[in-house]
TrEMBL record:
This is Uncharacterized protein. Keywords: GTPase activation, Leucine-rich repeat, Repeat. Pfam families: LRR_6 (PF13516). PROSITE patterns: LRR.
Length: 430
């Protein structure tokens, strides 16, 4: 077959050479090469499952290097491996025709991907590259990501079925960066962890079209906030954001609140049960100083304490938008006994009450099941007396459970009152 190949390289008339069902390993590639050399009308070549090996790929790539018609080449389910990928990579550096290339199931591995990535860095025409099931690990995914950062043409990079945990996000990053009409992307149930999420950060900063990004049921703690951040920035119709029970924690909260700082559409924010502590609340307070749209925030069942109450109190001093703030606490049972979520005492109540003396917009503040006693209630009473705004704070909910008796395993409510009752007592005193 080598003799035939050398002879046919100079032939300019033979278009089709049928060598099917012959035992020679070169038969398939020699036939394909002849067609590449002489058929000036062929645009698509299907060579999937032909047992093409690494060495025999040299015959094919010699023909492909000068071909100006083939735009779609399918080499899936072969055995081109590292050597064959090297030959193909050399061609891709200069090829100006090939638009779609399928190399799925070829045992390329990270070493082969390194060569291919180097070629893709300079390629300006390839738009679809299939690399599914090629034993690509995170090193290979990194090679592709680094090489394709400046690439503007590749729209689809399929890395399905590869063991690298970052393969999915590298593939998604390419699509998000270059597909200018992409509005919806589903990456749910892909085992995306926080390491994988790093490949998406930079492309999200520049993207203006993606409205819905589904990252549900992935182990990465940043997935929820990343998905939300995309919606916050790009979805101009979004007015309500419900992220309850997502365990975004403080780092996720920081990302979320940074995105919300300049948002002009979202009015309601539900962050119940997210393990947000005083650290995360500090980021929220910073956001509230600049955001002019959000009117309702639910922070029930988090980990907010008196310091967090201080941060919120400072922010409420000058906020002119927020009308409803829910900070309810909750008792729950686990293997270590009963625990409580938000815990605000009389100290935290004083911080919030001080803010209410100057705040002119808040109409509902809910602090159910905290450790606020008579002293804390008095702070709120003074604040309401000093604030002269009509209809100010129509609902102040102070249903407190501040006495927990471990030996009897019961909770005794010491005080329950509504603002309606409080207001009437204030009027009587006046």
């Amino acid at each position: 077959m080598q003799y035939l190949h050398d002879t046919f390289k100079e032939n300019k008339t033979l278009i089709k050479l049928n060598l099917e069902e012959n035992p020679g390993s070169y038969c398939t590639v020699v036939s394909a090469a002849i067609q590449m050399y002489n058929d000036k009308t062929i645009t698509k070549m299907d060579l999937h499952g032909k047992s093409i090996g690494g060495i025999t790929m040299k015959v094919l790539t010699d023909a492909l290097i000068n071909n100006e018609t083939i735009i779609d080449l399918d080499l899936s389910k072969n055995k081109i491996g590292i050597i064959g990928t090297k030959y193909l990579s050399d061609v891709l550096q200069t090829n100006q025709t090939l638009i779609k290339l399928d190399l799925s199931q070829n045992k390329i591995g990270d070493i082969g991907i390194k060569d291919l990535a180097g070629a893709l860095k300079d390629n300006k025409v390839l738009t679809i590259l299939e690399l599914a099931y090629n034993k690509i690990r995170n090193n290979g995914a990194q090679y592709l990501n680094d090489a394709l950062k400046e690439n503007k043409t590749l729209i689809k990079l399929n890395l399905e079925g590869n063991p690298g945990s970052c393969c999915t996000t590298v593939s998604a990053a390419i699509q998000i960066r270059n597909d200018k009409v992409l509005t919806t992307l589903n990456l749910s149930q892909n085992q995306i962890d926080n390491n994988g999420m790093q490949y998406l950060y930079d492309v999200f900063k520049e993207n203006k079209t993606l409205i819905q990004l589904n990252l549900e049921e992935n182990p990465g703690s940043y997935c929820t906030t990343m998905s939300a951040a995309i919606q916050i920035r790009n979805n101009k119709a979004l007015v309500t954001l419900d992220l309850s029970n997502n365990a975004i924690e403080d780092i996720g909260a920081q990302q979320l609140f940074n995105s919300l700082e300049t948002n002009k559409t979202i009015t309601e924010l539900n962050l119940q049960e997210n393990n947000i502590s005083d650290i995360g609340i500090r980021y929220l307070a910073d956001m509230l100083r600049n955001n002019e749209t959000i009117t309702s925030i639910d922070l029930s069942k988090n980990k907010i304490k008196d310091i967090g109450a201080k941060y919120l109190g400072d922010a409420l001093q000058n906020n002119k938008t927020l009308t409803k703030l829910i900070l309810d606490s909750y008792y729950y049972d686990d293997d270590h006994g009963d625990k409580k979520t938000n815990i605000i005492s009389d100290i935290g109540a004083e911080f919030l009450a001080n803010a209410l003396q100057n705040n002119r917009t808040l109409t509902t503040l809910s602090l159910q099941s905290h450790q606020i006693g008579d002293i804390g209630a008095q702070h709120f009473a003074v604040a309401l007396q000093n604030n002269k705004v009509t209809n100010f704070l129509s609902h102040l909910i102070l249903t407190n459970l501040d006495c927990y008796t471990l030996d009897t395993q019961r909770i005794e409510p010491l005080q329950q009152q509504s603002i309606d009752q409080t207001t009437r007592s204030f009027e009587d005193e006046r």
